[in-house]
């Protein structure tokens, strides 16, 4: 891995709740970047969205952060960062990227230059790149009118870069070709393929929980226990968690 460009992967989202599929995105993206021969992924960061995002059925951020921490107990390279969720208001993704980029730069070793100013002790090539990690559905939303500002999309793909993990039913290359901005910076967009098809979605999991169906093996056991202990995602405030996940428990 020597002489490779270090990369930190950042995933922003609801994580409502965090699923095994969310965790798989990181593993698939890391494998893909390593196989290019150019990059070394050094860290993964999960950033749960702020409560003021206003999404229906969004559990309080302290629950979503706690569940992410439980899910990541078995990971030695991914961590959850509560900064975004602790802000006083919802923040655009590009602002979250800017924050973590500045944190990365601040954490690098520094030396004092001849003019007594601080300078990075590392060569520019050793400064980690921060890339936004997302699923195919996020790449598709770049086409939704008035959802993203063009300037934000450009900053994300030009300054930071994107790693997108494909999913059945999505044409990633088509999404790129249909967007002038994505097309212009496609060299900085990495398309990774999940070798094991997996259609788990947090939406279907919330639906199953609301119907009292089992979600075992779709979420880490520690997260299932947390949901039960705090009566999350139930329609009547009581957690059942019995039965099996039906065909309805596919992504939506």
In terms of topology, how is this protein built?
Layout: E1 5-13, H1 20-35, E2 39-48, H2 61-71, E3 78-80, H3 83-86, H4 93-107, E4 110-112, E5 118-120, E6 129-135, H5 136-141, H6 150-160, E7 162-165, H7 172-177, H8 180-184, E8 189-192, H9 202-210, H10 221-229
Parallel strand pairs: 1-2, 1-6, 2-3, 6-7, 7-8
Antiparallel strand pairs: 4-5
Helix pairs in contact: 2-10
Keywords:
single chain, alpha/beta, two-stranded antiparallel sheet
**Approximate helicity band:** 25-40%
Number of strands: 8
* Mean of residue pLDDT values: 88
Distance between the termini: 39 Å
Low-confidence stretches: 238-252
Structural class: alpha/beta
Question: What does the oligomeric state look like here?
Answer: single chain
Trace the largest sheet across and list its strands: 3-2-1-6-7-8
Major sheet details:
6 strands, parallel
H/I helix tally: 10
Written as H for each helix and E for each strand, in order along the chain, the element string is EHEHEHHEEEHHEHHEHH
Q: What is the CA-atom radius of gyration, in angstroms? A: 19 Å
Strand content: 15-25%
Instruction: Please tell me what the overall shape is.
Output: globular
């Amino acid at each position: 891995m020597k002489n490779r460009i270090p990369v930190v992967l950042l995933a922003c989202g609801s994580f409502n709740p965090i699923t095994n599929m969310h965790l798989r995105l990181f593993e698939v993206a890391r494998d893909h970047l390593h196989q290019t021969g150019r990059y070394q992924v050094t860290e993964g960061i999960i950033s749960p969205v702020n409560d003021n995002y206003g999404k229906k059925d969004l559990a309080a951020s302290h629950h979503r952060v706690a569940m992410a921490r439980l899910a990541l107990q078995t990971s030695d390279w991914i961590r959850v960062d509560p900064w975004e969720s602790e802000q006083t208001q919802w923040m655009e993704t590009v602002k979250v990227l800017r924050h973590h980029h500045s944190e990365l730069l601040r954490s690098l070793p520094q030396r004092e230059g001849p003019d007594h100013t601080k300078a990075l002790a590392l060569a520019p090539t050793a400064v980690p790149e921060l890339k936004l990690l997302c699923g195919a559905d996020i790449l598709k939303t770049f086409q939704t009118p008035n959802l993203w500002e063009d300037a934000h999309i450009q900053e994300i793909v030009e300054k930071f870069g994107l790693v997108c993990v494909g999913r059945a039913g999505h044409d990633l290359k088509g999404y790129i070709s249909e967007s002038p901005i994505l097309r212009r910076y496609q060299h900085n967009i990495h398309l990774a393929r999940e070798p094991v098809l997996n259609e788990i979605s947090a939406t279907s999991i919330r639906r199953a929980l609301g119907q009292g169906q089992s979600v075992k093996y779709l979420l880490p056991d520690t997260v299932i226990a947390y949901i039960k202990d705090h009566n999350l995602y139930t329609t009547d405030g009581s957690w059942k968690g019995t039965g099996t996940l039906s065909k309805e428990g596919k992504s939506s």
